[in-house]
Amino acid sequence: MRALRKVSAGPGLELVDIPEPVCGPKDVKVRVARAGLCGTDLHLEGWDDWAASTVRVPMTVGHEFFGEVVQVGSDVDHVTVGDLVSGEGHIVCGTCRNCRAGRRHLCIHTVGVGVNRDGAFADHVVIPATNAWVQPTDLDPDLGALFDPLGNAVHTALQWPVAGEDVVVTGAGPIGVMATAVARHAGARRIAVTDLSARRLELALAAGADHVVDVSLGETLREAQEALGMLEGFDIGLEMSGAPGAVEDLLANMNHGGRVAMLGLPQDRYAIDWGRVITHMITLRGIYGREMFETWYLMGSMLASSARLRSAVSSVVTGRYPAHEWQAAFAEARAGQGGKVVLDWT
Prior knowledge:
The chain is of the alpha/beta class and 346 residues long. The protein has helices at residues 39-46, 49-54, 97-100, 141-144, 147-157, 174-185, 198-207, 221-228, 244-252, 274-279, 294-305, 307-314, 326-335; strands at 2-6, 14-17, 27-36, 59-60, 64-72, 84-87, 90-91, 111-112, 124-128, 132-134, 166-170, 190-195, 211-214, 234-239, 254-262, 283-286, 317-322, 340-344. It contains 13 helices and 18 strands. Strands 3, 5, 6, 9, 10, 17 and 18 form a seven-stranded mixed sheet that branches. Strand 12 (190-195), helix 7 (198-207) and strand 13 form a beta-alpha-beta unit. InterPro entries: ADH-like_C (IPR013149), ADH-like_N (IPR013154), ADH_Zn_CS (IPR002328), GroES-like_sf (IPR011032), NAD(P)-bd_dom_sf (IPR036291), Zn_alcohol_dh (IPR050129).
């Protein structure tokens, strides 16, 4: 089968032919239809310090995917051949304290598909059956491939109740845009979104933002508050950028008692105005991945009940490439000017 792999320790990937993966007794084998590019994949392709310290080569990359089950293990009884599934990319141990307490997203032994084991940029991928989320038969394959990053957006946006609240989203990448759509669906009062890319800010407006802040033009959240007629600051912050300047501007514009969910991973350590955090009683909470599997139930329910949300989420896919054009797909994703880029493996 075809597989896009890290074949040696260093920059680059190669599309190679390898044997199909073996399906164990508790696994399912999925024929991949669509797979989305993530920032993680860009780190792996570029081979930065994090990638070099994390990945053992050779390995197939990719963890956002949708496809058809073509084989199930002998111990699997809840997934069948022919099911259409999205994959939860975090595989947990099931035995640590958090797993046994039902907090599987906090597993201390998490293994990442396409990071710590062979992933989904391939014709076939094998995952534990418990990580396969069965989808409706009429689901658009592009939307099916978005469930992993959409789960990040839902986990972040719904960390606290947003109904009636003023929300700021820093970072209008695909997850930031989807978080904007989710916050709008959940009843946010006013939503402001910041980014450096005019194209991405257009996507945020289409997804439900009331006001966008183009940081590349020197615009600020203080000006956004004035434009929106706000007097006291934002109630909820969704930090998706990992950019120190974005975090500084966000904290400077939070209301007293404001709550900030932080998903964006920074490249380096950075300073935070802890005096403001303390005296304004701002709550900061780190977010990683999805709650297994409450977030998945929420995603399915919201998408099934709202055509507007389905359209807004689907709109983040702005690049589609056949698998053999993976280099062009990576180039578009690395440019950081559009939305989600998807590889077609059919």
